[in-house]
């Protein structure tokens, strides 16, 4: 008799809080696509996370659908993966509350992303921004995820998720699987093109700092040609040359070539040809995705069919875990 082995579960998500960058693509999305055949994957558009900073409602609506279209255009098959919008699954908000009552303020105050972001927003920091890592923990734990494919910047949130899960399991009884981060070998931290010691981020004020997945080819070429390097003129993967190192990382994540192969290829050549090739690699990688995003965003009915099916599957899995949590905490079930 054939034995069916349960596939391991994967959960990840991207915020529709701005246009997606090459960092989101290489640090997350590109790797998700590789996992879809071997795992039971839940890929979420985390709109509830996006409202931790002020959003224009019509932009949020547009971007939520654009992120969904980008998931599919990047190669996520809606029949193989559960692709859904976070706010369509109420269990996320409910579980987040229950977990908030199992999380210490001290833990949340230590989150570096909160510290960075709260500096930027000064006196108008929303409570949601502070509690956001708990919502992220709820996202992951509700699906009993084994692995969470993310970029480096989310590692600390994942450690907190594990701590919260372990604490809940210890104070009640085993309820959650303890998830592991799954960080790509290449592309886990794509840096800012103008200040290559900072992470590339969609919230940077200088558009030359980042490449958007939807940037037209000529814009990509311009941004790469203006990317900050140094005066050494040597293509070398080293911390002393953060700009060049970042471009090697990008080229390597796209082409699969190793750092050494890239260094060798450009030995004695300076930066001009190297930068041109990096730009062309990005253009070549993104062009088909851009084309498909444009087509998909005009097909609202198709997108709706994807998120409706996704919500149904996600609701089923998430509600199961939520009921378990409620029962263990001591809430009275409405029906047995
Ligand atoms: P977000 O929306 O900021 O980013 C989405 C994904 O992109 C990765 N990423 C990067 N990777 C490499 N280099 C970069 N410069 C770069 N910038 C972003 C992020 O690491 C992430 O994997 N809290 C999360 C969203 C979230 C989530 C979750 C993720 C909510 N719930 C549950 C995993 C599981 C966030 O703000 O990601």
From TrEMBL:
EC number: 6.1.1.2
Alphabetical GO biological process terms: tryptophanyl-tRNA aminoacylation
Superkingdom of source: Bacteria
Sites where the protein binds ATP: 15-17, 23-24, 151-153, 190, 199-203
Alphabetical UniProt keywords: Aminoacyl-tRNA synthetase, ATP-binding, Cytoplasm, Ligase, Nucleotide-binding, Protein biosynthesis
GO CC annotation terms, alphabetical: cytosol
PROSITE patterns: AA_TRNA_LIGASE_I (PS00178)
InterPro entries: aa-tRNA-synth_I_CS, aa-tRNA-synth_Ic, Rossmann-like_a/b/a_fold, Trp-tRNA-ligase, Trp-tRNA-ligase_bac-type, Trp-tRNA_synthetase
Catalysed reactions, as listed in the record: tRNA(Trp) + L-tryptophan + ATP = L-tryptophyl-tRNA(Trp) + AMP + diphosphate + H(+)
Pfam name, any one: tRNA-synt_1b
Function as written in the Swiss-Prot or TrEMBL entry: Catalyzes the attachment of tryptophan to tRNA(Trp).
Protein name: Tryptophan--tRNA ligase
Organism, as annotated: Clostridium homopropionicum DSM 5847
Lineage: Bacteria, Bacillati, Bacillota, Clostridia, Eubacteriales
């Amino acid at each position: 008799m054939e034995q069916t082995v349960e596939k391991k579960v994967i959960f990840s998500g991207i915020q529709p809080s701005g246009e997606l960058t090459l960092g989101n693509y290489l640090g997350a999305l590109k790797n998700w696509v590789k996992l879809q055949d071997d795992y039971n994957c839940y890929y979420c558009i985390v709109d509830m996370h996006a409202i931790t900073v002020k959003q224009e409602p019509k932009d949020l609506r547009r971007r939520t659908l654009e992120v969904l279209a980008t998931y599919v255009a990047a190669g996520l098959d809606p029949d193989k993966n559960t692709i859904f919008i976070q706010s369509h699954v109420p269990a996320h908000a409910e579980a987040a509350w229950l977990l908030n009552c199992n999380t210490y303020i001290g833990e949340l105050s230590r989150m570096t992303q909160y510290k960075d972001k709260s500096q930027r927003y000064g006196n108008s920091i929303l409570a949601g921004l502070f509690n956001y890592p708990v919502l992220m923990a709820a996202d992951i734990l509700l699906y009993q995820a084994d692995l969470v494919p993310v970029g480096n910047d989310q590692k600390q949130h994942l450690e907190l998720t594990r701590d919260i899960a372990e604490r809940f399991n210890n104070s009640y009884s085993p309820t959650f699987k303890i998830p592991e981060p799954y960080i790509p070998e290449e592309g886990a931290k794509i840096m800012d093109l103008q200040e290559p010691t900072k992470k590339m981020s969609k919230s940077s004020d200088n558009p030359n700092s980042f490449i958007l997945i939807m940037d037209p080819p000529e814009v990509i070429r311009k941004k790469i040609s203006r990317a900050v390097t140094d005066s050494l003129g040597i293509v070398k993967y080293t911390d002393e040359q953060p700009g060049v190192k970042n471009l090697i990382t990008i080229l390597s994540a796209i082409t699969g070539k190793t750092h050494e192969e890239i260094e060798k290829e450009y030995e004695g050549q300076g930066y001009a040809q190297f930068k041109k090739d990096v730009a062309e690699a990005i253009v070549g990688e993104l062009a088909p995705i851009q084309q498909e995003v444009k087509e998909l965003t005009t097909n609202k009915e198709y997108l709706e069919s994807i998120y409706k099916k996704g919500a149904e599957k996600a609701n089923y899995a998430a509600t199961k875990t939520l009921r378990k949590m409620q029962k263990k905490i001591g809430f009275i079930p409405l029906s047995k």
